[in-house]
Amino acid sequence: MNVLFISLLDFNSIEEHNIYTDLLREFVKNGHAVYAVSPVEKRCNLATYLISEKDIHILKLKIGNIQKTNVLEKGLSTLLIERQYIAGIKRYFKDIKFDLVLYPTPPITLCGVVKYIKQRDHAMTYLMLKDIFPQNAVDLQILSKTGIKGLIYRYFRRKEKKLYEISDRIGCMSKANIDYVLQHNPEIRDGRVEFCPNSIEVQDFRITDRERIELRRKYQIPLNKTVFVYGGNLGKPQGIPFLIDCLKMQLKNPEAFFLIVGNGTEFKKLKVFFDEYNPMNMRLMKTLPKEDYDYMIAACDVGMIFLDYRFTIPNFPSRILSYMQAGIPVLACTDPNTDIGKVIEEGRFGWWCESNSIEKFTKKIGLIIKSEKSIVGKNAFRFLLKYYTSHRVYTLIMESMKGTNK
Length: 406
Known about the structure:
By secondary structure, this protein is of the alpha/beta class. It is 42% helix and 20% strand. It contains 15 helices and 14 strands. The protein has helices at 19-29, 71-92, 111-121, 135-139, 147-166, 175-184, 209-218, 240-249, 267-277, 290-298, 320-325, 340-346, 358-369, 373-387, 390-402; strands spanning 2-6, 33-41, 49-52, 56-63, 100-105, 124-129, 169-172, 193-195, 226-233, 256-263, 282-285, 302-306, 330-334, 350-354. The strands form two sheets. It has an eight-stranded mixed beta sheet with strand order 3-4-2-1-5-6-7-8, sandwiched between helices. The longest helix is centred in the N-terminal third of the chain and has 22 residues, at 71-92. It starts with a strand and ends with a helix.
């Protein structure tokens, strides 16, 4: 079977470790040929080129600048992407008949590419829904449903519906995701929306007590405190102002240490807080190389997840997998619309509170410090192996293909 993966993920090898390359490796391991389109932005000064090995072919397609640029250039580059992807596929993969097209959101603007391959090759189309846009932008007041921003919202909402329409299957990260999509898109027929969670090829990053001591010394993390770590994107979806308010309440906590590792549009707000308060029981770090990050996470006691309380869409952040892989429990502070807290508590691998109450967060911290965290961490690793492996998701997709009437 020939599989086409299209996304905005910049990668050069499926040996890299993330939720997408781990899944693509499963297809290769099971005898399928994988073709992928991976963009290279104009600023890199590289022409389009093809990376080919035995069963994996990655088209590094030159596109305009989308990240870290002005709004005008980003908008123009985004509008050109569909045409560029189709042209690249026509040139480099013209003799390949695809059986399956895999594509995640974001973005929703590649629906024209999916439609082209579906019509050309009669391929099955599988959407891995990781982001419900444009509603998430409305929730965070980046867009609105009225005025000039309302015009932009309606344009993207039409794109979203077209993407759902051409998708034979829509794989959602959790039950709350499934319920949301069906409730807000009643035209989607029964049976097309299914469970397809974030997943990884599990690497055992659990460490010994001796290794934990060595790593804490390496990263200047206290040996005698409960260490809470937040790792990942530091942007508007994470509700950074609430995180900062929570940290302020913990400045004099003698039993807890808070480690924040990441980067993003809201990093500066955290930097201002750390510069002003110079907290003795906290540390702010920029992003580390992935393997270093994974081992440092394992040296901590609890992994934290934050989501802005204004969200009406049910997010399910993939960073939870890094915590579970390290064998540490999870504290999720989120809006009430996501079911990640329910999953964590029912799986007995962590705790949850709503991300609008500093008092509730503070109580959870006190409870966690006194808890048997090692037992909860073991539950996290077991839950990961049972539900969130790339092999399981590969199997779900293949079973879905068999059930598709083509």
